[in-house]
Amino acid sequence: MTIFGMVSRARPASIIKGLWTPCSLRCAGNRRNFASEGESKDTGANTETDTKDANSAYEDNIKEKLLEASLPFVKTRGWTVSAIHDGAVSIGYPGVIHGIFPKPGVELIDYFNKKCNKELNERLTNSISTSESSPQPRQFIEHALQTRLKMIIPYIEKWPQAMAIMSQPPNIPTAFTTFSSLIDDICFLAGDKSVDINWYSRRAAVGVIYKATELCMIQDKTVDYIYTWKFLERRLDEAFTVDKILQANESLKKNFAELAVASFTTLGNIIGVTPRVR
């Protein structure tokens, strides 16, 4: 018994040892503990980030499958949520899964455009790698534009709807980004490595020709779109003639290029997109 009638209990040896441990060693131990806690928090944060990335990749994979499965239904359903509904059902998903797309029609169109752009890029790159000589810009660009436009043919009846949807103000940034990437790839692979104001003028010219031919194509009723390809050929002839004139006249060339730069910059500022200069 001790004072106040409390029973004395022997302290465990570990506690006694701890009381007599030098402060420096105890502090070092505390630092190790704190470090361990910090490392644990960092590990937890990294794990959480990895989980989010994995979930995002999984969702993107599901979306891609759904959009790919929806394309065959565009011919009857158009670029609509109904096409995505039918596409989802066709591969075993519930139709209501279309709710994961905030803008069903826009996302379906953009998926199709990006898919076609990627396929075109692969074709052109392979063509260049297997060719013994560098491509002639005029013929190369005509072939590239024609190949890309032909990818629309299976959906030609519904393509005016796609053009109308992507021309709506909220959708212009998405449309412009994907389209400018297409035109840049074509010009770059055709041999245009310019980093000055010619970058803008040449891409502006090719972009205008593509869009003009696209408008011609959706109205063309000739066999195999012969009229459309003649139209494309004439527009390219005119563009290359103008380019030769501009190259021969530095003042005119500079004025035209500055106009192209101003147009690109203004459009980019309006829709919040910066042109990609390689």
Offer a concise description of the structure.
Residues 173-241 form the COQ9 C-terminal domain. By secondary structure, the chain is an all-alpha fold.
Write the layout of secondary structure elements.
Layout: H1 13-19, H2 23-77, H3 81-90, H4 104-130, H5 137-150, H6 159-166, H7 172-189, H8 198-217, H9 226-248, H10 250-271
Organism: Menopon gallinae
Protein name: Ubiquinone biosynthesis protein
Main location: mitochondrion
Q: Would you identify the regions where 5 or more consecutive residues have pLDDT less than 50?
A: 1-28
Structural class: mainly alpha
Name of the level-1 CATH class of the largest domain: Mainly Alpha
Helix content: over 70%
Mean pLDDT: 80
Corresponding CATH architecture of the largest domain: Orthogonal Bundle
Number of strands: 0
What is the CATH topology assignment of the largest domain?
Tetracycline Repressor, domain 2
Number of helices: 10
Overall geometry: globular
* Straight-line N-to-C gap: 88 Å
The description of the largest β-sheet is: none
Number of domains: 2
Radius of gyration: 31 Å
Protein name: Ubiquinone biosynthesis protein
Organism: Menopon gallinae (poultry shaft louse)
Keywords: Lipid-binding, Mitochondrion, Transit peptide, Ubiquinone biosynthesis
Family: Belongs to the COQ9 family.
